Amino acid sequence: MEEKYLPKSIEEKWQGFWEANKSFKVTEDQSAKKYYLLEMFPYPSGRIHMGHVRNYSIGDVIARFKRMRGFNVLHPMGWDAFGMPAENAAIQNRSHPARWTHENIAYMRVQLKKMGFSYDWDRELATCDVEYYKWEQLIFLQMYKKGLAYKKTSFVNWCPRCGTVLANEQVEDGCCWRCDSVVRQKELEQWFFRITDYAEELLDYTFKLSGWPERVLTMQRNWIGKSYGCEIDFPLEEHLAKIRVFTTRQDTLFGATFMSLAAEHPMALDLATPDNRAQVEAFIEKVQKSDKARRSAEDFEKEGVFTGSYCINPVTNCRMPVYLANFVLMDYGTGAVMAVPAHDQRDFEFANKYGLPLRVVIRPEGESLDPGAMTAAFTTEGILVNSGRFDGLGNEEAKEIIADFLEKEGIGTKSVNYRLRDWGVSRQRYWGNPIPMIYCDLCGAVPVPEQELPVLLPMDVTFAGEGGNPLDKVDSFVTTTCPQCGEAARRETDTMDTFVQSSWYFLRYCSPDFAAGPLDRARSEYWMSVDQYIGGIEHAVLHLLYARFFTKVLRDLGYIGIDEPFSNLLTQGMVIKDGAKMSKSKGNVVDPDALIKRYGADTARLFSLFAAPPEKDLEWSDQGVDGSFRFLNRVWRLVFDTLPLLHRAATLDPENLNDEGKALRRNVHKTIRKVTEDIEERFHFNTAIAAIMELVNTIQAFEPKNDPQSAPVLKEAIEGIIRMLAPFVPHFAEEVWAGLGNTGGIDKAGWPACDAAATMDEELLIVVQVNGKLRGKVTVPACADEGTVKEKALADAKVLPFLEGKKVRKVIYIPGKLINIVVN
RNA sequence: GCCCGGGUGGCGGAAUUGGUAGACGCAAGGGACUUAAAAUCCCUCGGUCGCAAGGCUGUACCGGUUCGAUUCCGGUCCCGGGCACCA
Predict the structure, then answer these.
(1) A679 φ, ψ to 5°?
(2) Confidence of residue A218 (pLDDT cuts 50, 70, 90)
(3) FRET partner for A657 with CA separation of 20 to 30 A, picked from A25, A240, A731, A766?
(4) Nucleotide showing the shortest C1' distance to residue A624 CA
(5) What CA–CA distance (Å, rounded) separates A307 from A322?
(6) Among chain A residues 668 through 687, which have CB within 7 angstroms of nucleic chain B?
């Protein structure tokens, strides 16, 4: 052990040691308790950023802690390697997405290794490798067979100038980010996964995932959005057809005075009367031009157009004009809304704008409601009026009664509706997993036979940045023959959404080299489910919902026997600097490489864990990093200075200590208990580190006496510190541990055990309050009963003045903590 | 607009089940060591009144429950994140 703490050489040394010994390589060991720890894998964007450092530092603490506690820990790492940025970079640099991606992976792998994260690198995978994506193609085919993958038309953002589909993030203020043309909605045939088949189960399990943050579960429940209501048919005046609506407010049916349809509604054009046809067509065109993001903006002007047709309210028999309205979405319900302007704010505004009638059917209890005087819709609970035989009912109870009535009369049916929509997985992009389908003029869409997999993504492609998917132009890829009839046919050129790859990578990690299928069932069942998953809160819905869905699909395809992929979830906050999220454009980025170079990886890890608890945002502070570095230096000196004493230390005899020794030992074991709980139960690494710092301060104040028991107590204390620090600053701990004369690595030493007997206090400090205000403190023997404490508190010199001339009404005693004297 | 979080010193944060508000760290100020600087060590550090002992006050704001509220309840304001106008 050197006199001075030199992180660079220490870190290189131990990283070499771990690599040479394959310290973190694991296999399925039935005799050991398994622990699968996973952090969300990175997109290989170029370099790691502080968010990665934080995410992976949090994970590494848990991995190393569990290892020290004797678990067989699976801790893998890989790359979410397909995606748009690679393609954009290829266009910009006139290079190839594969090259860009692999270079980035190589660089970032070095960075992660420099951080000292304890991964089993033998399991590394990249989703753009054919060994990964070919199995995904197989899964797609099996989903297709079961009807879980299907094709339907839907709308995409389309740039007419580039001739390209745009992602939402490529649309800026309704215009193409590259050429600034106005983006329009284009209808396209696309592949979908039937996630809605699993809506009920996905919802159900949100009530069983006890290891997930309630916040995330709430968001997922809201996303799935189950609601109970009715489907009601409104007959058309001049047609045989009916318009079907879904509503959760059947209690307001008597107040429905007009009908609003989505512009995309299949009946929209048919309902346009000759006089109105031109306006209706113009309106549909206009809605298609407005992009989805804008359409949902707060200040979006509610607009509509009258079709010229009328339908009939089935309970009031009133004529209801049928409008198209820009705020009605085809994706939710039936794409048609019965408009109740008196009791829905949007309908109220719409009715005002187009001079449509208002009919009050609910009034506040004990009051009446004048339709002419209303300035907003009345949307709270009340009593039904103008509703025939239902008048006088409370509107909540009326929901059930009216639903029953509608069913009996054959007007409508009770219905459950979900917000969740099927998952569109088609992407008109090159850098993704090719969807294994073939189009034949005679046979239609034909799946690629399983034995012909993989459909290789061709490498000889040029990137222009316009004119659509580059894959379309690779003749050798597109041109093929129909597997069914042998005639000339075309390959599907859509690739799969990258969320598909991230929906099952955690399963592939269990058997990454398995050559006979996507996963080796025996190995997967040993490791799954993931015991602890860690990642950013931004993935609370999409990724985490898709991964849950995919796990259930793989279960139903017979690949695995579990229902849910992640038993416990930890969502971490963002890394902030100067009050904003770190980003290149804001220029407030802290480069992990520079940090490692200056302080070493251990300091970077320590600070990112100490500055805030994981789930909170972390405000970066350069001075704070200095503080963490100073702390490590202090510990280093403490060990180095006491080394000669520690080497001579006799065996510890806990029964035979002086008061100072006992006090220090009590401190050591109380700290062990706290740090263990903070890591294991709360993931509050900041307070765990603070507790270790306090113990270091205590040890520094401890003066070893010339008695035989001082050195062993000190030795136990210092060894405890080093072992507790090991998950946080592993290189540092390994070096110091070896310096203390230990061999074989600190993992083998295990996590220190708390000796409960040593934590027992001999005396307790009792806080004395008078009328709830702190007035004094008394020290009593730990065994003192209530009477003794009370006596001592009432006699305390600092308390007495507050009792003078007053009468003691009550004394409340909280054992071992506090006594409150109530006087008046 | 809807949904989900959050608001504690100059700063990051602590107070885990309603029981000492401000642990730990940073910054700042003072001191020791040094020819000097760095490093290190020691002291002070919410506000306010006081020579001091100590008092009063204080966890966004207003109110409530309680012997006791940063913590629970009702209302208000502000900040952050998410969204697919959810009928």
Answers:
(1) -75, -50
(2) confident
(3) A766
(4) B26
(5) 6
(6) 674, 677-678, 681-682, 684, 686-687
Strands across the sheet with A618-619, in order? A580-581, A575-577, A618-619
The b-or-e profile of A55-75 (16+ CB within 10 A means b, else e) is: bbbbbbbbbbbbbbeebbbbb
Please tell me whether residue A758 adopts helix, strand or coil conformation: helix
A53 CA to B13 C1' distance (Å): 20
A244 touches strand B (CB under 7 A): no
Report the C-alpha gap between A145 and A101 in whole angstroms: 33
CA A708-A755-A724 angle, to 5 degrees, is: 90
Query: Which among A361, A390, A399, A409 is positioned nearest to A229, based on CA atoms?
Result: A399
Backbone CA torsion sign across A282, A285, A287, A289: negative
Q: Which amino acid is at A193?
A: F
Which token pair is A429?
A: 């992009």
User: Could you check: is the Cβ of residue A215 within 7 Å of any atom of nucleic acid strand B?
Assistant: yes
Mean pLDDT, chain A, integer: 89
Residue A736 · residue A646 · CB < 8 Å? no
Distance in angstroms: CA A319, C1' B44 = 82
The amino acid at residue A601 is A
Digit-coded pLDDT (tens) for A448-502:
999 999 999 999 888 776 777 889 889 999 999 999 999 999 999 999 998 999 9
One-letter amino acid for residue A210 of the chain: S
- Average pLDDT on A393-405 reads 90
pTM: 0.91
Name the nucleotide with the smallest C1'–CA separation from A682: B16
Chain A residues 758-777 with Cβ under 7 Å of strand B are 765, 767, 769, 771-775, 777
Residue A540 CA to B4 C1' — how many Å? 11
3-state secondary structure of A27: coil
Which nucleotide comes closest to A691 if you measure CA to C1'?
B24
Rounded-to-integer distance, Cα A35 and Cα A70, Å: 10
C-alpha distances out from residue A529 to A25, A37, A433, A509, A626, Å: 19, 10, 26, 12, 39
* CA pair distance A523, A509, nearest whole angstrom: 10
The CA angle A122-A128-A134, to the nearest 5 degrees, is: 90
pLDDT band at A580, cuts 50/70/90? low
Q: By CB neighbour count within 10 A (0-12 exposed, 13-18 middle, 19+ buried), where does A473 fall? A: middle
Considering all nucleic acid strands, name the nucleotide whose C1' atom is nearest to the C-alpha of residue A619.
B12
Q: Could you give the C-alpha distances from A60 to A52, A301, A391, in angstroms and in order?
A: 12, 50, 64
A690 touches strand B (CB under 7 A): yes
Q: Per the structure block, which two tokens stand in for A580?
A: 């904003």
pLDDT, average across residues A165-182: 72
Give dist(CA A364, CA A286) in Å, integer: 40
Residues 6+ apart with CB under 8 A from A515: none
A296 touches strand B (CB under 7 A): yes
Query: What are the pLDDT digits (tens) for A27-51?
Result: 999 999 999 999 999 989 888 888 8
Q: Is this prediction's ipTM beyond 0.85? A: yes
Quickly count: other Cβ atoms within 10 Å of residue A495's Cβ: 23
Report pLDDT for A622.
77
Distance CA A497, CA A56 (A): 25
- Proximity of residue A720 CB to strand B below 7 A: no
Structure-block tokens of residue A577: 């600097």
Task: Please check whether strand B approaches the CB of A641 to within 7 Å.
Answer: no
Enumerate the H helices of A255-301 as residue ranges.
Answer: 277-289, 292-295
Give A424-460 pLDDT, tens digit per residue: 888 888 999 999 999 999 999 999 999 999 999 999 8
Give the C-alpha separation, A303 to A301, whole Å: 6
